[in-house]
Amino acid sequence: MQQTINNTLTAAWTAAWDEGDVNAFDAIVTADYQRESAGKKKASGLKELQQEILDIRAAFPDLTTRIDKVIADGDDVAIFWTSTGTFTNTLHGVPPTGRVVETRGSNALTLRDGLIAHERVTWDAGELLADLGVPSLQSAFEDEAPDIVVDNLSGDLPLDIMKGFNRQFITGVTVVTTVDDEGKPRGLAANSYASISLDPPLVLVCVQKTSSTYSALFQSSHLGINILSNEQLGTVRTFASKAPDKFADLEWHAGPNGVPLIDGSSASLEAEIKERFQAKTHTIFVGRVRHAEVADVDPMVYKAGHFFDGARLEEL
Fold first, then answer.
1. Does residue 139 lie within any of the structural domains?
2. Environment class of residue 88 by beta-carbon count within 10 Å: exposed (0-12), middle (13-18) or buried (19+)?
3. Which sign does the torsion angle of CA 276, 82, 32, 25 carry?
């Protein structure tokens, strides 16, 4: 009897994950089936599982799964498995990399009358992206226990308060650059740049996923960060626009790894992308600096939606 159950579970698993027949799970789960993610600590039902399978198979069309072991003890069953596939299409807003990934996981099942009533999984789509080198910071944004209180409103901060906070922070202005898969230069204006460390030389920049440069940047191995000078107001306006070719009238030169570095900048660097962290609407790119240039020209300063001459700062 137990062997029959094991064979049924394995057959349904293979049909769903390898062939995309997600309806195969209909016959092996109870009406109140619940699936718990060990990482996210959240429960979902059959429809959410079926949709996740379809999403993952769309991103990994050649996905194959091997059942490594099934261990049963009465109504408790553990499945250990290995999946392999090529990241071919977008998954959860992450552009494809063309990389082949092999990922492993285990599922703890609780049966009722031979059907799965509860399933606890150690793996989900977020873990798959982590295996591809794209870890998520999702856990930092969960609202399971909101404890922020502003004007007696629990939950997230009101948008106008967050905007007001950000307007008080003075930054420089950068243009982040890269090249797409056709070798065409791409770039966007950003002020979310920070130096992480000098030894090793690490930097980070946050990029919104809706940017037209995002896909090219995500798939690239290197990026450029150009700190704009107080003579480049026209340049920053170009890169903040939706112009189809932002490099058309721009003077630039290629760094050692081919990344566009903008002439006239106060400073420019070229960094090898080491990490890509998913943070809701943005991706945090962490890079190791491989090349840097510094010019004798003052940088532009940005505060509250306005640009200022960095040469006229008064020391306190």
1. no
2. middle
3. positive
Integer Cα distance of 87 and 131 in angstroms:
11
From residue 61, alpha-carbon distances to 57, 135, 138 in Å are 5, 21, 25
Question: CA-CA distance, 283 to 204, in Å (whole number)?
Answer: 10
Pairing of strands 29-37, 115-121: parallel
In the chain, the DSSP E strands lie at 29-37, 43-44, 64-73, 76-86, 100-112, 115-121, 149-150, 153-154, 171-172, 174-179, 185-190, 193-197, 202-208, 222-227, 252-254, 260-262, 267-279, 282-294, 300-303, 306-309
Say what the pTM is.
0.66
- Answer whether the bond into residue 256 is a cis peptide, omega within 30°: no
Which residue is listed with tokens 């979310």? 192
Residues 168 and 128 in one domain: no
CA distance 87 to 101: 8
Q: What is the CATH number of the domain that holds 125?
A: 3.10.450.50
Total of domains in the chain: 2
The whole domain housing 254 covers 159-308
Q: How far is CA 96 from CA 59, 126, 159, 205, 220, in A?
A: 8, 14, 32, 20, 11
CATH of the domain at 293: 2.30.110.10
From edge to edge, which strands make up the β-sheet containing 222-227? 185-190, 174-179, 222-227, 267-279, 282-294, 202-208, 193-197
Query: pLDDT tens-digit profile of 67-125?
Result: 888 888 888 988 888 899 999 998 877 888 888 888 888 889 999 988 999 998 877 66
Please check whether residues 171 and 293 belong to one and the same domain.
yes
